[in-house]
Amino acid sequence: MENFTDRFIDKMLRCGVIAEGEKDSYRYAFAVKTEQLLTLSVILLIAWAFQKVIPTMLFLLFFWLIRKRSGGYHLKSFLGCFLGTMCIYVFWAKVFAPFLLIQKPILYVMFAVAVVTLEVIGAVNHPNMDWTKDEYAAGKQMTREIVLFETAIIVTTALLGADIECVMYMMFGVILSAFLLLLAKVAGQDVS
What we know:
It contains seven helices and no strands. The longest helix has 28 residues, at about 25-50. About 80% of the residues lie in helices and about 0% in strands. The chain has about 190 residues and is mainly alpha-helical.
């Protein structure tokens, strides 16, 4: 992945698209976007194989809206993150979701605990982010607002009789966000 990114950025530099001083910023941004695209593509491919595309898209939407603002646990390498993400998704789709479909009270308790956790903690200031106090406060506030909004959507769609699998996958987006936020706190990845 790094070689591909380096070659692409070097070509942009040679073509005059970017200046020498912008090289590191573009390298980082390009690598992050490429990794996100690869991860998203593979998850959607697996979701297609599992016939869970719509629920998975809902999960990704609910998860990424929170994760983008709250932060959470980070592995040291893209490969570790990629493999961890795939394992979590496959475990959810093939083991945990079918179990929770039978044991719905456990799902509801996990969801409630996740919402409370996200509302209390809000966000973590990962060393790589190094937010200012104002940025950190804004991240916490935005996370809390998004969680309340998502909770309202989940509760409303459930009460209106939406497909339980779609509701469960939306809940999983919130649950996973809370779990990764707690894991970051426990692992000492919060510099606040």
